[in-house]
Each structure stands twice: as C-alpha cells, then as structure tokens.
C-alpha cells in the first residue's frame, strides 16, 4: 500500500497509508480483498524479489485480506483501503526489531560471559528464536485487537491507481 496525495485519517486522527484492492468474495459480513498491482510494480527493480508479479508464495492471491463489509461491497468492486501509519511502524518494529534485539542481546551476553565463539553463535540463534516467538505473540495480540486490519475508505475511481512517487 502507498500513501495517496490526500491524507485520510482513522477515527483516532492518525494518518492512513492507502492502497487499492478488488473484492474477490463475500461471507458473513466480511469482504475478501486482493491488492492490485500498481503500474510501479511492473517497473520496480525489486519486482522479482517481492513476489507480487511472480505468482509464487508472495503472489497477490497469497496476500488477500478481509475487511468488515459494512458498506455493502460487491464482488468485483475496487476499493481504497487504509492502515494507520502508526500501526505500520509498530508492526515493523515487532517484526524486525524484537527478533534482532533478542539475537544481539543473547550473543553479546554469551560473548561477555564465555568468550567462546561456538557458545556465542548458539546463543545468537537461541536469542533469535526467542525474539521470533515474542514477536509472533505480540503480532497475534495486535491482530486480535484488529489493529492490523485495513479499513474501508471509499470506492476507487475507475482509472484510479496507487501512486508510487
């Protein structure tokens, strides 16, 4: 998702990062959406790495998500959805900083304690594992609270695309 020129805000006043998605199915008050590939994806130097264009594990079908369908959305409609900038920053910290901090703190502690390269390497792996478990738990709590769920903003205009500049 990329931020559009006009800034929409969530109910608490935080700026939203926006993206366009297409409704692919409906069930029990929820809409399943699939993000659209922007024109910038086709020319991106990292397109092969992110998987959006490849159809592999990182394909668009694998990145489908649900939103609450309180707008009466229909299959095939294009909508603009948003996630709070604050939420994205916190999710990034959870995903990257917690495991890295676990790995570094365990390896530094082991190195200061034993001055043994093998023990330090083993402690780094163990610290990374513990950090990943803590991050997974924290991400689960964020998901349970609904913090990670994108929110409907508006229907997308027929020619509207995500802005990549």
Please tell me about this protein's structure:
The protein is of the alpha+beta class and 165 residues long. The chain has one domain (16-155). The protein contains four helices and five strands; from the N terminus they run ββααββααβ. The protein has helices at residues 39-43, 47-50, 85-114, 117-144; strands at 16-27, 30-35, 65-68, 78-84, 151-155. Strands 3-2-1-4-5 form a five-stranded antiparallel beta sheet. A hairpin with a 2-residue loop joins β1 (16-27) and β2. α3 (85-114) packs antiparallel against α4 (117-144).
Distance between the termini: 12 Å
What oligomeric state do the depicted chains represent? single chain
As laid out across the biggest beta sheet, the strand order is: 3-2-1-4-5
| Mean pLDDT, all residues | 79
Q: Given the C-alpha coordinates, what overall shape results? A: elongated
Instruction: Estimate the strand proportion.
Output: 15-25%
User: How many separate structural domains?
Assistant: 1
Major sheet description: 5 strands, antiparallel
User: What is the alpha-carbon Rg in Å?
Assistant: 20 Å
What is the tally of helical segments?
A: 4
| Pattern of helices and strands | EEHHEEHHE
Q: Helix fraction?
A: 40-55%
Number of strands: 5
Q: Structural class of the secondary structure composition?
A: alpha+beta
Spans of 5+ residues with little confidence (pLDDT < 50)? 1-5
């Amino acid at each position: 998702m990329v931020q559009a020129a006009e800034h929409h805000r969530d109910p608490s006043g935080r700026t939203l990062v926006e993206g366009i998605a297409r409704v692919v199915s409906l069930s029990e008050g929820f809409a399943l959406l699939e993000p659209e590939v922007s024109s910038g994806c086709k020319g991106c130097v990292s397109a092969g790495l992110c998987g959006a264009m490849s159809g592999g594990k990182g394909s668009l079908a694998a990145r489908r998500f649900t939103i609450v369908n309180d707008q009466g959305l229909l299959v095939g409609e294009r909508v603009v959805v948003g996630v709070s900038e604050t939420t994205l920053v916190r999710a990034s910290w959870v995903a990257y900083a917690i495991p890295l901090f676990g790995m570094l703190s365990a390896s530094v502690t082991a190195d200061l304690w034993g001055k043994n390269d093998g023990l330090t390497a083993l402690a780094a792996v163990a610290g990374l594992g513990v950090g990943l478990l803590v991050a997974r738990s924290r991400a689960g709590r964020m998901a349970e609270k609904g913090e990670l769920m994108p929110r409907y903003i508006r229907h997308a205009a027929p020619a509207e695309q995500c802005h990549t500049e």
